Amino acid sequence: MLVIQEQRLTISQAQQLSPTLNHSQAILSSMVNNSDVYLFSSEQIFRIDVTLRSHIIDSALTLAKNGVNFETFYRTKGNPNYWEITEMGGLQLRNGSQPSTALQDIFNNGSAYGFECATAMEIVLLHGMLLTIGERLFNELYHNLYLWDWQDIPNLPLTIVSVQQGDIPGDVRYFKNPQVSPNHMAFQGENVIVLPEKRYYGHGIGIGDHDYFVTQLNRARRPGATMDAYLMPRATRIIAERIVYLSQSFIQIPQPAVPV
Question: What's the predicted TM-score (pTM) here?
Answer without folding.
Answer: 0.93
